[in-house]
Amino acid sequence: METPAGTGLKLLLWILSHISISQAASPSSQKCDEALVTPLPHNAFTSSSVFTSGYAPGYAKLNKRGGAGGWSPLDSDHYQWLQVDLGSRKQVTAIATQGRYSSSDWTTRYRLLYSDTGRNWKPYHQDGNIWAFAGNSNTESVVRHDLQNPTVARYLRIIPLDWSEEGRIGLRFEIFGCPYWADVINFDGQGVISYRFKMKKMKILKDVIALKFKTSESEGVILHGEGQQGDYITLELRKGRLLLQINLGSNQYGSILGHTSVTSGSLLDDHHWHSIVIERYRRNVNFTLDQHTQHFRTNGEFDHLDLDYELTFGGMPYSGKPVSGGRRNFKGCMESINYNGENITDLARRKKLDSSSFRNLTFSCVDTHTFPVFFNGTSFLQLPGRRDHNMVSVGFQFRTWNPTGLLLFSSLADGMLELALNDGKVTAHINVTQQKNMRVDIASGSGLNDGEWHDVRFLAKENFAMLTIDGDEASAVRTNSPVQITTGSTYHFGGYFLRTRASPVQRSFQGCMQLIQVDDQLADLTAVEQGRMGAFENVSLDMCAIIDRCMPNQCEHGGRCSQTWDGFTCTCDGTGYTGATCHTSVYEQSCEAYKHLGRSSDSYWIDPDGSGPLGPFKVICNMTEDKVWTTVVNDLATQTAVTGSSRERRTVLQLNYSASMEQVTAITNSAEHCEQHVAYACRMSRLLNTPDGTPYTWWVGRGNEKHFYWGGSVPGIQKCACGIERNCTDSKYYCNCDADQKQWRDDSGLLVYKDHLPVSQVAVGDTNRPGSEAKLTVGPLRCYGDPPTVVSFSFDVGNGPVELNVYSPTLLNDDQWHRVSAERNTKEAILQLDQKYKEVRPAPTQGHTRLELYSQLYVGAAGGQKGFLGCIRSLKMNGMALDLEERANVTPGVKPGCSGHCTSFGMYCRNGGKCVEKYNGYSCDCSTTAYDGPFCSKDVGGFFEAGTLVKYNLVPEVVAAASSLDEKSVIHNLPVETNLTHEDLTFSFSTSTSPSLLVYISSKTQDYMAVVLRQNGSLQLRYNLGGLREPFSIDIDQRNLANGQPHTVNISRVERDIEVQLDHYPPVSYTLPEASDTQFTLVKSLFLGKVFETGYIDPVLIEKYNTPGFVGCLSRVQFNSIAPLKAALRSRGSAPVSHQGKLVESNCGASPLTIPPMSAATDPWHLDAGADFPFNEERVIPDGVNRNSAIIGGIIAVVIFTILCTLVFLIRYMFRHKGTYHTNEAKGGESSESADAAIMGTEPNFTETIDESKKEWFI
Question: Which cysteines are joined by disulfide bonds (predicted)?
């Protein structure tokens, strides 16, 4: 038998070995941030032009001063570019730029293109757009951009878009990244690679497939596998989109259909690399294309993928079942193919796989260059042609999203030729003027504005013209109109802007063209680019900058997306939603809302979450009672008979509702009360086996949890209704059925704990004995009650009841005063809420007009209605103020004044938290503080790694406040103003590295505020408000604060007066110089940890404090009424905050250590067991700081630790301490994939679930 110490040692060795394996297996975890440009020779750089030899592109290296100090082109216009050849493919992660040294030349904005071959450039994309990088505002400061989407390329090209107004284009730059290498296979469209399985048949539960591909073909099978049972997996290109098809199995009767089809991406035939990852576990699939992941679940009920023999890459297998649908093999390149841990590309290189179908298998990518041209709507490309010829022959390929545009225009010797796109069709128009305005008009194709490449061929000669689209000769359009053609000398593609006698109807084109042919000769666009032939304007050569704005689909709730080159539109028909992006629901949120519209009881579509992800669904609204009931029915028949069940093999009855579980949950969450009737009719069939037995029957509710109480009882009490009311047939039992009598008995009642509803399954377990019978009934789910968002005004003057409703966009139970005004006169009735929301109802032209009332006035409640809970003040009727306070003194249940729980307990909401009244207590609203927790006392902190930053955009706060408040409230309640004369900044930090930047607040001017840690670890506050030559600096403390201990900083400024408090020391006052301005003008953004700004930044901050940035913990960060760090950690896209790098929430927000130190029990820096704290010892300890002390302390710690470990293992070997704990949770429910799994995997004994003692061994 193994000793405990031996077990512990083996466990420790196992952990250490797996740590070392993990580290060795993931070299990619190393930072990819090498300077790639600096080591390159001069001949690696090329450019569009050079001002003089001293301005050559080889001098454009960051921080270098050779030559004239950087690159400048001959002309500063939008046709210039600077290009670098990295020598081989590299992974590129960042770019940094500078202006030309000691000059007035710099680039303020630029684009980045990349390529593997130096041709067919692709612009860098970010956030769904062709990205324009912010450049420099002077010659020396370095502006770096970390790429949100790192790319792999050999050639990079910078295109200046804007430059210095004082000078010309000037540039020095650096590219950051690391080496990249991968096995590449070139597929010729004929051969496939076959990966044979080790076994003839594979039953696969989990798949991980990863690869990269590039192609210029829009069709082709990338991988395929199939089995004789009908299972298959296929990944292929269809019209430039990826199509993944999976079938895990269908049954022979067709009742279970496993086919699942998912599409992703578009425009994938751009001959650029795209990455694919397919991860499948059972029926759950993650399908990732270029970092965009779709999560889906396959159809059917089977979990395994049954494949036979092989999996093929590059096409369908040649043997086996006949290929359907005319699928083509893949033509292009693939690299880094991995299938379930097997490197397919490496196996193919080592000839371990079958590649016999290839004529010549090559392991380098063969590029077929087509030289695309991009037109932006203001462009044209002019090419020469044969003059005075009697035949026109042109051809080209194009792709666009626009339904209209000019493709080609040529002035004939006597007339004009125009090829244009009209309503998605290509039209050809010839007009010869001398032949009595002889015209030729033909059209071909349809829907050609789909973003795909389309081929156009046009031929015209004497009395003949033919237009062919996509090479389909059968559908080519011909005409034999009598016409004589004499060609001109030029052809304009993509635009014609000259005002001539003969001009085209369309003037421009937005899209791409390639393979342009004139007079049956392929145009030499390289010569055009070099200026040796033709002309062009505003075109981008050798690239196609097309963007699919509908992928991913920006239309919500299944809306259909259509697009032009500049934008997209959504068609919402049949979705149940409306608006520009199908965001707004056309249905009401509840039955209560339909009642307010005057509707009667019926079936209605409702949408509980409005514009949320849940779709609308149908419910029954019952409005005949005092309450408005919402009813959702299920498919279980009344009195369903159950036979043949036992405790070992229970009969499980599944209930399906008219709405999904998520939709039903939305109803129960928003309802005030829900109930569901259950009934169990029995004869010799026990139900819960009370009082002390294991239940025979239970039910499963929301969350796949099983429950052991029945209708009429409550959670945790294993009884039926008769057991609660003490009137069971046999008083020894708590359910009538548990008496096990031969007569028919019944246990029924309402389940009312709404967090457990609805009932999704019932498991019956005692109907297999002779004479045992049971009948089960589960009624519909019924709920009533709505969140208070409506104020109603109703009356009846004899013409019938009238009800006016005003809807509030926010809840009215927000503990804020709301003003209501209701008026009825002979002309109209008016209801107004908060002086903003109003409804007016005209009075009928005939009928009664007088309102005659004879009873007393009731305020707060009336007979049979639920009373009002809250405060009412300033009640007036017809101008007369009613004394509510006097009546409150003599009315039970009503009190004068407006005091609540917050009056007595509001002081427990700390750190500026707001007390909110509740029906049975109070809560603390911490949303405007930098804290969290029930009393706003829990620190919210984050651990910053090197390069991590948080950016909070201060401008939207102003806009949002101004748009949602009236003018007067804006003045008092703005969280931050555009121009500040008063700032309050509070934060805590701990770090062991310096220098670094803690907080930086920028502006649209050169004003800023910054708090930095200097090289010696001391803290410095910097203000630059204008008026001074240098920023005003305050050295807050000369001590080294980069000591790993928490420190708290409070900074407050009012006009010129600044007060600073550090830790527990007294505040110190400072004054801005008289020459300094006092207004912080046009505040813009707040940064934590590092600055990444497009506007002006103090060069001193960039050079000394911004790289690599703050490393450590920040917490309690509050600027005026904004908590930026808390917003970054807790918001889900609602706040104007973002972060870069790894930001981990940590419990580092603590008070600084004082004397005497706090105990571990009260010290918020004390880590609880299991706390996740990203502590890195190597990162925290700086070189040369207390090194001797650290070594001595480390030796002592190791000795103490060794002694303690020895004692622990000895004690453990001699004694074993048993610990117990109690639980009342249903084990297995949370992690179960289905209710079946929850039932089968959970111990059926309810009493044991509550009282069972579990044993643990402490090691």
Answer: 871-898
